[in-house]
Here is the input.
Amino acid sequence: MASWVKIIFERDIYAIDLDRVSAFASAPNGKITFWLPNSSIPIVLSPQTHSESHQIIQSYIEQRTGYSLGAHWLKMNYDRCEYLIDLNSISTFCCEPNSKKITFWLPDSTTPIVLHPQAHAEAYKQVMDYIEKTIGDSMP
Here is the structure.
């Protein structure tokens, strides 16, 4: 079931199916960033300047995280932001053999996420488990 919302951003009105958004980032200053599906356009909502739209997205994220996210959703802190990422929407994972770092790129953006096994242990394990379950093989 689609979760269509109407938000105002930079004087334009957008109708967005939030169920098609594959990643959200929440910064410590309260800003929420997500990327429009099928594009690389970021929407950055501040609670001060986009209060109504910000609240709509914040409520969706809280609703989404209030329920079980399932094995394919990754919730993690990275680069001073909290991310909620649908791993089913990731099309490429890259593993460095020596350091064991895993890199993937957020869908609909060019933002790389680089996970180190020690620095991001919980997220790293969840991604490795997802890869093994999805492709039937482990990364080195």
Remarks:
- The longest helix spans residues 51-66.
- The longest strand covers residues 4-9.
- Helices lie at 51-66, 121-135.
- The mean pLDDT is 88.
